Amino acid sequence: MAIKVEEKQLTLLERLYVLEVVRGIALTTGHFFRNMAVHIARLFGLAKDKKGSTTFQYPEERRPLAPRLRTLHRLTRREDGAPRCVACMMCETVCPAHCISIVAGEHPNPLIEKYPTRFDIDLGLCVFCGYCVEACPEDAIRMDTGVLEFTSFSREGMVYDLNKLLARSETPKPNEESKVKTA
Amino acid sequence: MEYAIDVGKVLFWFSSIMGLASILTWMERKQSAVMQDRIGANRADIFGFRILGLFHIIADSIKMFTKQDFVPAQGNRILHTVAPMIALFFALVGFAAVPFGGTYEIAGYTVSLQVLDLNVGLLFVFAMMSMGIYGFVLGGWASANNYALLGGLRASGQMISYEITMGATVIGTIMVYGTLSLQQMNIAQGELLFGWIPAWGILLQPLGCILFVTAALAETKRVPFDVPEGESEIIGYFVEYSGMRFGMFFLTDFIETVLAAVLTTTLFFGGWQVPYLYAGGFEFPWGGSFELPVVAVMLLQVGAFMAKVFTLCFIFLLIRWTLPRFRWDQLMRLGWTIMLPLSILNIVVTGVVLLIVGN
Amino acid sequence: MSASFEFTPENKKRFEEILRRYPTKRAAMLPSLHLTQEQEGYISPEAEQYIADLLEVPVVDVREVVSFYTMFTRNPLGKHHIRVCESLSCWVRGSDEVKETLEKELGVESGGITEDGEYSWEVIPDCLGACELAPMLQLDGYFEGNLTREKVVELLKKQAASKTSGK
Amino acid sequence: MPTLTIDGQEVTVDAGTTVIQAAEQIGINIPRYCYHPGLSLAGRCRMCLVEIETFPNLQIACYTRAQDEMVVSTTSERVLSARQSMLEFLLSNHPLDCPVCDQSGECDLQNFYMDHGQYQSRFLENKVKKKKAFPIGPHVILDQERCILCTRCVRFTEEVSKSNELGVFNRGSRSVIDLYPTKSLDNPYSGNVIDICPVGALTEREFRFKCRVWYLASQESICTGCSRGCNISLDYNGSRRAYKAGGRRVMRIKPRYNPDINKWWICDEGRFGYGFIDTDRIETPMQRTTSDLEPSDWDPALARVAETVKAAYSEKGANGVGVIVSPQLSNEELLACRELFVEKMKLTNVAALNPWEEPGEADDFLRNADRNPNTKGVEDLGYSGDAKAVLEKAAEGEIEVLIIFRHNLADGEAGKLLEKAKFVVYVGTNWNATAERAHVVLPGATHAEKDGTFTNFEGRVQRFKQALLPIGDSRNDSQIISEMAAKLGYSLPASADEIFEAWKGISLDELSGSGSSVDPDTAVQA
């Protein structure tokens, strides 16, 4: 069922446009002078706690990441340092981009039994849907590193293997809230 | 010596315009950013100094000169090359007839601060502005790109529509001051109404001023009248340009903005006039005076002119970053069904008022 | 462990007797195994094979039966064998204490034999069928119930005494 | 002939039929673990409990005989709650191994738990620990913790393989399935315990961790290990990209039920004998130019064969060319060869069988000594004479061109004769000494890569279906023969379907359903 949207009827003054233009310009002008004052003050080392913009000066300033944000994958470790992954291939199965490939091997300990001899994620294919994390029955794969910069000059460089994925295995510290507030 | 004075005037005027246009390229980005709570250009630095990103003007020009100069394979190489030059040339030439100061007697020489003192100066400026459109249309056509051609056509369509309004609007001003010479107009604006109000165009022709500014903005093809560019839809006549040839179009844009500001200043904001400042110094209507040497008067008046132009440029940029773009049909409707009748009405009303006042 | 197993001539006769009581040879499995354990004290793999051949069943079936019933044992035992019930009633009434005491007194864990070969003991997780005596143990076929730490120690002393007295 | 009602449906079954079988006849599948139609009844798992009117308690459907006027419910509340309780009971000591268990995906515990599970565990005690993951034979790994003691495997070794390696030892919650000490599960049919194990207790060593079962696709085929012609399913990498499985395509072979031939079983030789499909294959046509075999295209290789054959044919007539076809070929390929070489070219030296071939092991259950799947087909299609005579003629120089299909004739006496042959064309799938000695090598397709039929030793014509594309540049043999014929100036159909239809008058798809048999007496049954 279509929803009827009541259109706001403009007054004559509004329809004349000129006054509205002036109001709009007044608003933007206000912002301009306020922000410009802060910028100039900061140029001379004053008003360090104020910010003339709402933007983040990447890469010096980083946006605080939401804790649930899906970032670069990592593989977690057991207490003895071995990967938690048991190569069940749930992630590989659920992956809509087919970017994960696992080769399983026989673990000498029959209580672990199965472990990944290879675990490759092709980040060039990954769509960061997070299904692998949802599917993992062992909490072996997570996407909470907070790392958003991973680039490479080659396609091969985008393939992260077991060692690369295990390198960030410790739980990252939560991002500190940025102290600088918008002006 | 007179040649030297002429050369000096040309050099001063040219470098002022180019300097202002260059600064506008930075201002455009920085101002828009600051008024939108962003930061804007701030990266280019020299030895760690950034001074609010002012060095981006230099960085930009280095970039423009070193970028690949691209000509489309199917395009017309000659016209493609010449088009931005045409646009830039006619945009610059228009300034010749605009005075940036009065006439001063300095050290025995009569210095008139105007490159070309024409008695039909206004017509000359309008003519040059109209010629500029060839640059855009040719550029659009020579690019062998449908979007570029469409941009060129839109530019000419818009130019025609708003040139008429512009011309009709100015007629009111001409009627009031009774001259086509821009210098004469400026001098006329130095008079006082009722003994104390400066006879600036904006006071004599308020409607004319609004219409003129609007039409002038349309002439510069900038938001809200940037349909020829429309970067979200067709990109415009310069879509196939790169490097310094794109730079010329880009600069033309800002020079036209300066031209619009200069004309508006000249016609409606008293040009180089400073209220109550005469050749000998200030003479206030409520009595009292302040003697000044001629050179000081000249500097004050030129400075006033520049300040007015700069302020208008700032306002033009404010408008450009505040208002949304018109659709093509809205643009045409505004031009033909609102602004043109209003400008004709302005002529009629001006005529009637002049008849009454004159009698 | 004997390298091979065979019924003694006397037991052989008893076995023939047993066979006659059952409609099929397989049915004589339990009495035959009892006979074996009686003769040997435990049931060795060789004995399993011997029984399987006699009864004409796969040897794995014999092993299934032997491992199922707790009264059969596959390891040599001490002269006196103690079975401690660990089933629910006994456990509730303190079979853990009995186990601890035995372990301390005999110096071997469940399933082991003392160095002198006198005693062996084991824990029977399944019920020995004397819940009214809980906690209880079985010493050489006799039930001893209502045990405490002291009673277990006493029991072992009595057993040792009866031995020295030449009973 | 009792007539009973199951879930409101009436069904009349033979006397002696059990309720579980009667239900199956009308398409009702009662969950079961210990019941297997090929084994004796054990009644151990209690999963197939059903409610029967007039019986006070629930009855196990696998053991209860169908009787007249029985009214059975398989979905009543009591039944469902009993199933849930049984599953809880069976799972109380079952480890949470699904992520590492090869059975997951085709596990009856998983499947039935999805339908009837309790989901919310209330088992707080410690699970009983047993021995995990140890090999009990050359092909089988046992995990005692996962075992639910259905004893299907024990009954298999007792009743089918009659080797008695496995037993249930100890009592109660400590009961385990284990080998009898000193024994090893290495009977020729040991792989079948993997199939019948309803859970992940018995898994395949070859297949272990190679692939998850949900990646597999399956195609109906016929075992080529011997002339029994056991029905099999070829399980191959389907949805998983091949490079992720190291290029291996066929992952395992499972027996396919055929009451007349192999029932539910298959021998280990057949089950694990699929390696040749993916390894050591001839992938491109080869030609001997000066001294080495070099890769070639199909066109020049076939052209060279045709030229040489034509030259020999015109010089020495029908005696100049010798052909040794193979009982490894399908009926359709043998027909095409007969059409071309016997009927059209009228060659005199055409043989099929290799007299030097060593017989395989045989028993009275499934395995036959004849290792070729289609020896009966060769005989039925009128091939006679053996390779020895043809080879001798080739060695004497009477035969100019010798075309060998599949056979390896490079060893011993045959090898000495083959040495002297002037020009040898080898058509086959895998590299062997004969291929290496040939002048032109044409790569054919294995049974996994083509359609066709084999005739088993009893005369049953059975269909196998294509699962994979021929590897590399190799081609279906009937296509090779057809193209060779075209180059020689004859026209032959290239597809197995066309040849079969011309032969039997029905299309391959009409061949009794899913590739089961054509009775030897009636020859063709639709």
User: How many structural domains can be distinguished in the coordinates of chain D?
Assistant: 4
Query: What is the element string of chain C, with H for helices and E for strands?
Result: HHHHEHHEEEH
Strand content of chain C: 5-15%
Shape of chain C: elongated
The whole-number mean of residue pLDDT values of chain C reads 87
The value of Rg of chain D in angstroms is 27 Å
The stretches of 5 or more residues of chain C where confidence is low (pLDDT under 50) are none
The helicity of chain D comes to 25-40%
Order of strands, main sheet of chain C, comes to 2-1-3-4
Total helix count of chain C? 7
| Number of beta-strand segments of chain D | 22
Classification by helices and strands of chain D: alpha+beta
Largest interface: A-B, 21 and 17 residues
Measured by DSSP, the beta-strand proportion of chain D falls in 15-25%
The CATH superfamily title of the largest domain in chain C:
Glutaredoxin
Instruction: Estimate percent helicity of chain C.
Output: 40-55%
Instruction: Write out the strand line-up for the largest beta sheet of chain D, numbering strands in chain order.
Output: 15-14-20-19-18-16-17
What Rg of chain C is obtained from the alpha carbons, in whole angstroms? Answer: 18 Å
The total count of strands of chain C amounts to: 4
Number of structural units classed as domains of chain C: 2
- Distance between termini of chain C? 28 Å
